């Protein structure tokens, strides 16, 4: 049969083909037509070549991508895939062929603005896109922050700043078993929290061939449907497990006439792989990047001479830090899971598919029409010393090697439901820092409030704005006395607030203003002065090392700790509420808490940034940086409700639209629904769609 491309009313592509390979080709083709600029951004980021057309603002990432060997790792992983799973490798090649066909002659306006010629995907490029998208997902730079805290405040202080940090991404996910639904069949719902990007990081798509028929959220540039899918008889979804599976090693390096050597744990200096790459930068001179790899992994910070402007660490040794991450060690990125997921018919099939999963490490929830359910961790976490998970460890000392892989934990349902929101759950043995329990506790409480649930009722949970993490600050406010009359009135108003971060709430705006003032005052205290100037590590790691965000996201711990290095917290809270009482915000929460999507290139015609409900610890997780900015760059990158009773009763939405082409009618048409918490129908009836073409 011919490969057919259809569209529904929202411009979502529905593809029908005679084989999985033909379908992969069509998926690549339609993705390139809809999102050519996005695909090329992702390809160049994986290769470390984005500065060649974006300029100096992209240089820090490109240097990291080169030094971390992302493109080379993708090549290795694809070569391994060809050896172990040749059918999957051919399927990936078919997708790449479709991408290249779709990119040929693309007229996306961004190419003309930057002078970039699209095209040139290699068979391993989807693996590089996947790796570049997730390499920072586990937040290994947090270990650099812990080193700073331990060096200046002592190791016991590390826990004070433990929180879902500024560089991590999370998700909400919940599974309601058939015994708790009106249909007797399970419902799975949730929303992945990631950077909100334009175009979006998830692509709504429908893939159909004789082998399978699946709707779901794809990652543009990667074939299949990895994270969130519904085959009609089984559905699955994931959340970030918050596991720690990447290590940082402090290396001792020296130059020799033959190159660079690294000191290994057995006391022997061994040759490190070394070469130099040239990074092109639009409008500027090219930059040299020295690429060094030891027996632990690629050196991503410093080198034999240390860092420019900061040549040595406190021990007097030059700074050189290497990164060890599973795909670089194993040559396996987990792509062997993708085709089996599409072919899944039951929970057992999904379970077996996720046995192949590698990175990132996720918590999986799945259910099927026969009553089967699944709640497990999937991915590869190395067995090694506990200190590896906490800090940067010395490469030259024994005891920090990897010794195999953790078994992935499993869990069940409690009272007919399972909830994951990056809290300490089944993945607890595999991680160090997890999200606070507020989102998970709130979802569980809401689900407990009704005996039977329908798919149609789930958006009320998606959009809940109750902020449980406000309690410590409100408790501190309640204990204050001798306030000015203005501050006392503000305190009393906040103590009567319903703790909902609604866009139209003036009380939420007042709370956020006081919170921000407290964060800034705590961060400015002399006790933390040594943390205000981070080491001169590469720019890509600076979000993890900035003090104000760290204080903002750890405010609960800092306010409730028994003692805080002599910081007078009541005085800080008092000063903050007096400050806000003198100059209160004039409007409502949505006036300052506005959507700020990331774009590689700013649009020629700027878009209005809509006001948002929610906050970092609400179920409606729209996250600014307390004390720094209320503009939200992170939030629900999609919302979904998978109904196992009737797939046609499932619903989904993305923040902007199905198309990545500016000016397209489907570029931003889902934004009003996303803002309101509404969803669009999942369409599977071909007779209701508009046929676009045969390919």
From TrEMBL:
Give me the residues that bind Ca(2+), please. 244, 247
Question: Could you tell me which InterPro entries the record lists for this protein?
Answer: Ntn_hydrolases_N, Pen/GL7ACA/AHL_acylase, Penicillin_amidase_A-knob, Penicillin_amidase_dom1, Penicillin_amidase_N_B-knob, S45
Q: Which domain of life is it from?
A: Bacteria
Q: By what name is this protein known?
A: Penicillin amidase
Q: Give the active-site positions.
A: 171 (nucleophile)
Entry's cofactor comment = Binds 1 Ca(2+) ion per dimer.
UniProt entry keywords in alphabetical sequence: Calcium, Hydrolase, Metal-binding, Zymogen
Looking at the keywords, is Iron present?
A: no
Q: Which cofactor does it need?
A: Ca(2+)
Q: Which GO terms describe its biological process?
A: antibiotic biosynthetic process
Family named by the database record: Belongs to the peptidase S45 family.
Any one GO MF term held by the record is: hydrolase activity, acting on carbon-nitrogen (but not peptide) bonds, in linear amides
């Amino acid at each position: 049969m011919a490969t057919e491309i259809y569209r529904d009313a929202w411009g979502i592509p529905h593809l029908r083909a005679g084989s999985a390979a033909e379908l992969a080709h069509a998926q690549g083709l339609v993705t390139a037509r809809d999102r050519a600029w996005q695909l090329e951004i992702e390809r160049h980021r994986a290769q470390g070549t984005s500065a060649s057309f974006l300029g100096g603002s992209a240089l820090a990432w490109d240097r990291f991508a080169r030094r971390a060997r992302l493109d080379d790792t993708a090549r290795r992983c694809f070569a391994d895939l060809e050896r172990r799973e040749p059918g999957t490798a051919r399927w990936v090649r078919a997708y790449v062929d479709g991408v290249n066909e779709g990119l040929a002659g693309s007229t996306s306006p961004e190419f003309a603005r930057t002078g970039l010629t699209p095209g040139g995907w290699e068979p391993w490029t989807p693996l590089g896109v996947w790796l570049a998208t997730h390499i920072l997902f586990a937040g290994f730079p947090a270990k650099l922050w812990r080193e700073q805290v331990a060096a200046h405040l002592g190791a016991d202080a590390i826990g004070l700043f433990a929180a879902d940090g500024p560089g991590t991404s999370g998700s909400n996910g919940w599974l309601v078993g058939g015994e708790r639904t009106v249909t007797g069949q399970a419902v799975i719902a949730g929303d992945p929290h990631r950077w909100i990007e334009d175009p979006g990081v998830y692509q709504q798509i429908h893939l159909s061939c004789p082998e399978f028929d699946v709707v779901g959220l794809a990652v543009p540039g990667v074939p299949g449907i990895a994270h969130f899918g519904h085959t009609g008889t089984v559905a699955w979804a994931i959340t970030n497990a918050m596991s720690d599976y990447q290590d940082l090693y402090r290396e001792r390096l020296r130059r020799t006439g033959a190159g660079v050597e690294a000191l290994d744990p057995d006391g022997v200096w061994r040759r490190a792989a070394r070469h130099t790459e040239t990074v092109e930068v639009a409008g500027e001179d090219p930059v040299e990047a020295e690429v060094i790899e030891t027996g632990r992994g690629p050196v991503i910070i410093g080198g034999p001479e240390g860092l420019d402007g900061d040549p040595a660490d406190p021990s007097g040794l030059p700074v050189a830090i290497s990164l060890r991450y599973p795909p670089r060690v194993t040559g396996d990125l987990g792509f062997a899971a993708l085709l089996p997921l599409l072919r899944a018919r039951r929970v057992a099939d999904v379970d077996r598919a996720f046995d192949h999963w590698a990175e990132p490490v996720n918590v999986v929830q799945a259910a099927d029409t026969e009553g089967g359910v699944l709640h497990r961790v999937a991915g590869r976490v190395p067995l090694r010393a506990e200190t590896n998970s906490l800090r940067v460890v010395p490469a030259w000392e024994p005891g920090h090697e990897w010794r195999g892989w953790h078994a992935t934990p499993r869990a069940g349902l409690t009272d007919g439901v399972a909830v994951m929101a990056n809290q300490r759950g089944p993945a607890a043995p595999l991680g160090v820092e997890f999200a606070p329990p507020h989102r998970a506790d709130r979802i569980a409480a809401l689900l407990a409030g009704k005996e039977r649930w329908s798919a149609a009722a789930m958006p009320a949970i998606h959009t809940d704005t109750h902020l449980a993490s406000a309690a410590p600050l409100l408790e501190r406010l309640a204990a204050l006395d001798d306030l000015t009359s203005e501050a006392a009135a503000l305190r009393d108003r906040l103590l009567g607030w319903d703790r909902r971060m609604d866009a139209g709430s003036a009380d939420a705006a007042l709370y956020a203003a006081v919170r921000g003032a407290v964060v800034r005052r705590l961060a400015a205290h002399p006790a933390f002065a040594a943390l205000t100037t981070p080491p001169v590590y590469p720019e890509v790691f600076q979000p993890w090392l900035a003090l104000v965000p760290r204080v903002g996201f750890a405010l609960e711990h800092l306010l409730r700790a028994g003692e805080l290095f002599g910081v007078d917290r009541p005085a800080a809270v008092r000063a903050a509420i007096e400050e806000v009482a003198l100059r209160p915000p004039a409007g409502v929460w949505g006036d300052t808490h506005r959507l700020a999507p990331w774009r590689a290139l700013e649009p020629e015609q700027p878009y209005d940034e809509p006001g948002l409900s929610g906050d970092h610890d609400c179920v409606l997780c729209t996250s600014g940086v307390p004390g720094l900015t209320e503009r939200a760059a992170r939030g629900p990158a999609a919302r979904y409700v998978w109904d196992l009773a009737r797939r046609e009763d499932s619903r989904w939405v993305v923040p902007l639209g199905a198309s990545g082409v500016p000016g397209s009618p489907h570029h931003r048409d889902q934004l009003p629904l996303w803002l309101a918490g509404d969803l669009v129908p999942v369409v599977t009836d071909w007779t209701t769609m508009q046929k676009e073409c045969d390919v």
